[in-house]
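Handout, page 2. Input:
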Amino acid sequence: MKKIFLALLVLGQMSNAQETKAVADSTKTNQLEEVIVTANKREENIIKVNTAVTSLSSKKIEDTRTWGLSGLSALVPNYNYQELGVSFQQIQSIRGIQVFSENPAVSTYIDDVNNIDILANGFAFTDVERIEILRGPQGTLYGRNAMGGVVNIITKKPTNSTNGFVETSFGNLGLQRYSAGIKTPLIKDKLYFGLNGLYQTQDGFLKNDITGTTSTNTALNGKTVGGEQNFYGNLFLKWLVSSRFNLTLNLKGQSDTSDNSGFMVSQSSDTFAFANPDKINLSRIAQHERNILNTSLVAKYTADRYTLTSISALQTIAFGFKDLDFPGIYHSFYNGKVGELLPPQKVWSEEVRVNSNSDSKFQYTAGVYAFTQKGYEPTTNTAYELTNAEATAYGLPNGSYLVSRNRSNNFGIAGFGEMSYLLTNKLKATFGLRYDYEKREATFNGFGDAMLYNGVVTDINPNITANGNYAAFSPKFSLSYAVNDNSNMYATYTRGFRAGGINASSLPAGVRQTFDPEYSNNYEIGYKAFLANKKVSIGVDAFLIQWKDLQFYNLVAPFTYARENVGDAQSAGVELEISAIPLKGLQLDGSFGINPTEYKGFDLKRINFSTYQEFSTAIGGNKLSNAPSHTIFVGAQYEYPISAKMKAIVRGEIRNLGSQYTDIQNKIEQPSYTLINSRVGLSYDKYSLFLWGQNLNNERYLAYGNPDSSFGRSARTAMPRTVGLTLSIKF
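Output:
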């Protein structure tokens, strides 16, 4: 550990000098700073953006101790985060719009690179410049999988100033977190270098008990489940080729490993998670490993009246697991050995766009986007370990595995454009349109179609190849009215689109192997303003989302389930964000979201495995799963200057999420719960020391519940109270 810390210390860096000055100045003024965002893929004042956007500055990310996407829950109105045991396998829900497959419903970008698959998420947050959360469908500029919105993460870039940071944190549950970085000019005004890294480890809190499982290995009793360690690195090279043209090369890599994995495991449905929130019943304790590398090259040319940008990216993800109790024992497998790292998923993408950069009445953004994806989805590339009784029932030798394999090849291309025109000095009209075309292909085998014995795979039935083609238009219309220089009203219509897909399972003749896209229509009105001489900022909006053709598993033939388009849903609500500086050094922040939701008039078909009779479950009228009835955030931070260089900082937060259901049948309920967080410490010149606590009231609530309770109710509780100490040095 000392070697790791010393290595990071050598890298040492803190936030750039300009940001340090901005943070220092905020304690000497009683005005809120203007916020610049790139929500519309060009720099704009957030007041003038005609959609609901939450922007978290680097300072607010630090103040709220937002170390990952989970930290956005309730901080962002109507945002909810659910985790499937690991940070890189999660469900993000905005305004009740979420995902039931590997294709996200909330699109996540990090430094302009789209994380197309949910397996690509979970990058550690360190040295982040800002995070922008766009609420509601963003189909025109962001395309597929932005049904619920977009999370746009922008990390800090190197400049002409040499600066760096070193930070270390310790806490309960074995938390150790070390991060450091440096940014510097290699050739002033020409070539810049930036590097930062992070190592983090934390134990799980779930204690295993083999009671009720098939295991007789009592050594597993009391073993911790859910621990993980993460290595992250981020490297930048920026070259100013000329005063108009620059290139930025970026490599981001992360490795996540665990020998007591929480991936896809759940707590006993008999006791249900609330009864024993720290207990889990597993007959095996799994291991996992994920390695991800993002490589991107951004080229930007700035002319007098336009800016031309090219973003080329290659993302590779390798993932593997073994001894996963789900139920029965599963291991990742494709064609090597049980528990192997699957062949890496590879996603290449290219975006070329042009933006106006003049002060004329007419503004525009236009471009093309294309991607190819070769994937090996982890839950459909497995070796199922047969018990001796199961092997006998299948007529196979003991020690056999049933093998499932699935390889996908996807391609997509899109053209998009958005333009706005000032009809008067105050009234602006915006029109946007995007066309997406996507081709998907999967080659797979059905359950029981292949077996593995003594390292040799035998195909009982041949592989199946299926194809699907999908296309969609995503329009946008908006009118905005500038009441004055510091306030803006808008009304917007946008359409969202999530691609269809292929059921990677053997289906009877006459049953569709593919399912169609989802669509959404979003209607929104809003108002944003700085008030009281910029001592107060406010943003309020009301929305209605009509979600069409939801993709969900259904009974499509006797004893056969597959994903199909099952019906519609509706989400509506009101959101409020407010910040105020009532006196020098004190900042108050609050947000509120209310979100009534409803599935519209459809039934799910299921089979009773006791009687073998088919039955229907009425879903119409149920609330959308993972959609809290409301979210509330209240935060207060006071910075008191002790001397010219020293200040004391005290912060408190309350987050409340309303009642929700995790499943579409509304059987697994998470009652309303409240989290209390705090952070107190001292900052002296470039040094700071903080004591912090998350969930100080030790609220026990669900991190995840299964989306379909017709096959049993399973869930997993979230982390209990955590407290820790963080020391940081800036230079």
